[in-house]
Every structure is written in C-alpha cells, then in structure tokens.
C-alpha cells in the first residue's frame, strides 16, 4: 500500500486491473485505491509474474501492507504461501503502524516563512521542484512526489506564500513576488539547478523563474499553466476566493476534475479549514488580482514569459479542463483529466516529467 500524502494512513482497494498469472511491467496500472482525499491508480513498482493477489476489493489496509506477490514461475507455491501468511500476520498484528515519517520543513525566504516537503536522496543532482496552483498546496502532488523519490530523484514540493502551511503574507500578490519567492527558495536550499514542475498559477510562476534565472532551470513541465489563453473560469476563481461554507465550496471544487465523484468530503473539509485560517482571505484576494485582468480575462501572458527561454519544455493539459481551456496552436500532451491532471491522471503526468529528467 503506497503512502500518498502526509495524512494517508490506510487505503481501500477498489478494483484490480491485473489477475493472478498475468505478467506486469514496471509502470503498469495495477489497482485503483481510494484514500481519504481522492482515489488513485497504483503503478507497478516492479516487473514480473503476479503469483498471488492478497488484497481483495473493498478491503481497507494500512500503508505498507502487501497487496500482491510478484515472483518467477519457478518459485514454489509453498514459498508464496509463506509470504502471504507473513503479510496477513503483519496487518493483523499492527506491525505496520507508521514509524518515522518525513516531516514538512520551514525556511525563511525574503522575510516569508515557506513550508516544504523533500523526499528522496538529498545528494541527487538537479532536484524536481513542484509548485502548486491557486488555492492549492504541496499535498496536491501526492500521486507524483513519492514515485519520483522512489525513482531516486530528490522531489521537493513547496507551499507558495499565502497557501498551505506557509506564511500568509503575499505582499502585493504579484507574479514577481511569487517568482522571487521560488527563486529565493532554491537559493535557501542550496539548489543550483532544478527541474521545475508547475500547475496552473504555479506553471506561470516557474515559467517566470526560467525567464528571470534560466541558469537555475534544468527543464520545465507546465501542467495546465495559467496565462496561455485569455479565457479562464473567472466565476470559479472568484467563487473559491469568497467561499466560506461547504455548500459553496464543494461544487466549485468539482469543476477541477473531469470526474466530480473524485471529490471526497475530506478534500473539501481540508480546503475549508485552510480558507478559515487568518490571513487567507486577504492573500487569495491579492493573488486573484494577479490572475484576472479586465473583463475577467487572464492577466498573465505565459507565452511572453517563455519567449527566448531556452530550456527543455513540456506542456501537459487535461482534455476536459473546465478552468483553463486547452489552447490551440500549442504543442502539448493531452491527458484524460480535468484541471487537476496531476491528481486525476498522475501516471501520464509522471511520464511527461520523467522524460525531462
């Protein structure tokens, strides 16, 4: 059972895509798992023959529980049975209770406190830095950050000012302020060059970082970045900034996904809890002015930011994005998802990111 996000303790098996006797490859989709926040698809971390499926659909299992056994055909059934019994005993005994878990850290950048989570080896060259969108936080990368760390990369997800566990002072909320924060964050962590991955507002921010400090950027992966087209769901942006109740927030959050059934009560509750923190309303309002211009059109011009930026670039977009429509005339990878492609189609997003590493 994978660890998707800091709050995940258990996962519920929804549906298997493989059967006993199938041969799987690393990266194959093997099983859908439901967490307290959202359902996700587990990619196989190994290749080989599926000898036994232990976790039945509908079962709730702790992080770290064995879900299936993969082994060569010449391994005796008795050895497979022993592994299965050991796995079941570990669950029943409570031996899989969480031990020491990675904890978010804080760093001061330009007088602002920035919260971040780093996974993977510290000595890895050119880490992957993940930057969320408007109203999001580092936990939105729950299906992306851990797999990258397991690949051997250092994967760092941060909360922009005004978001998540970072300080709520966003100053003027401008793109320049957010860009300077990310650039200063890299300096504060001693990161010389990084592969930058940005979603929505975060996409525009990392594009601006590449323009301001191209020597710090090994590659860019932009996921439904703000500013590629004038059109945007301004009603969503204004509504999210103003929402103060579950009744107001839930239908807005549903617009972020192609499959609105993915929106759990916990996901909405977490967003509502964030929105009720002191200073959040002011921060979101300030940043909203950066996103929206006259006539509720997008105020950021991301293609202009990228002009003359000579770093490897990948653009990924959910084909069913209702917040920022898929632009015409842009070379991009379409995935079967809404605006939150990295949560709804993480396997395809990971493929795009890995291609730049």
TrEMBL record:
Lipoyl-binding domain residues: 1-71
InterPro entries for this protein: 2-oxoA_DH_lipoyl-BS (IPR003016), AB_hydrolase_1 (IPR000073), AB_hydrolase_fold (IPR029058), AB_hydrolase_sf (IPR050266), Biotin_lipoyl (IPR000089), Single_hybrid_motif (IPR011053)
UniProt keyword Repeat present: no
Keywords from the UniProt entry: Lipoyl
PROSITE patterns, sorted: BIOTINYL_LIPOYL, LIPOYL
Gene3D superfamilies with a match to the protein in the record: 2.40.50.100, alpha/beta hydrolase
Pfam families, sorted: Abhydrolase_1, Biotin_lipoyl
Protein name in UniProt: Acetoin dehydrogenase dihydrolipoyllysine-residue acetyltransferase subunit
Source species: Pseudonocardia adelaidensis
Taxon lineage: Bacteria, Bacillati, Actinomycetota, Actinomycetes, Pseudonocardiales
């Amino acid at each position: 059972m994978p660890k998707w996000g800091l709050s995940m303790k258990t996962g519920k098996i929804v549906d298997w895509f493989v059967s006993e006797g199938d041969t799987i490859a690393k990266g194959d989709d093997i099983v859908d798992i439901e967490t307290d926040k959202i359902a996700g698809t587990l990619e196989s971390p190994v290749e080989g023959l599926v000898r036994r499926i232990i976790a039945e659909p509908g079962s709730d299992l702790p992080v770290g529980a064995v879900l299936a056994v993969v082994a060569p055909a010449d391994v005796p059934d008795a050895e497979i049975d022993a592994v299965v019994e050991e796995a079941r005993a570990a669950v029943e005994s409570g031996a899989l209770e969480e031990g020491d878990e990675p904890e978010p850290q804080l760093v001061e950048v330009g007088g602002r406190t920035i919260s971040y989570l780093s996974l993977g080896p510290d000595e890895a060259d050119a880490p992957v830095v993940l930057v969320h969108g408007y109203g999001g936080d580092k936990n939105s990368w729950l299906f992306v950050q851990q797999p990258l760390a397991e690949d051997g990369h250092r994967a760092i997800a941060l909360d922009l000012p005004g978001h998540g566990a970072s300080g709520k002072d966003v100053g003027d909320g401008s793109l320049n302020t957010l860009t300077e924060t990310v650039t200063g964050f890299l300096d504060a962590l001693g990161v010389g060059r990084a592969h930058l991955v940005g979603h929505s507002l975060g996409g525009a921010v990392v594009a601006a970082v590449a323009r301001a400090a191209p020597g710090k950027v090994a590659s860019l992966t932009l996921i439904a970045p703000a500013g590629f087209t004038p059109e945007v769901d301004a009603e969503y942006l204004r509504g999210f900034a103003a929402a103060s109740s579950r009744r107001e927030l839930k239908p807005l959050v549903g617009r972020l996904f192609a499959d609105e059934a993915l929106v759990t009560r916990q996901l909405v509750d977490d967003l509502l809890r964030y929105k009720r923190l002191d200073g959040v309303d002011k921060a979101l309002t300030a940043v909203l002015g950066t996103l929206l211009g006259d006539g509720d059109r997008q105020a950021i011009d991301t293609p202009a930011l990228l002009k003359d930026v000579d770093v490897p670039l990948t653009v990924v977009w959910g084909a069913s994005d209702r917040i920022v429509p898929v632009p015409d005339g842009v070379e991009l990878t379409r995935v079967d998802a809404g605006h939150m492609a990295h949560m709804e189609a993480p396997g395809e997003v990971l493929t795009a990111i890995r291609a730049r590493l």
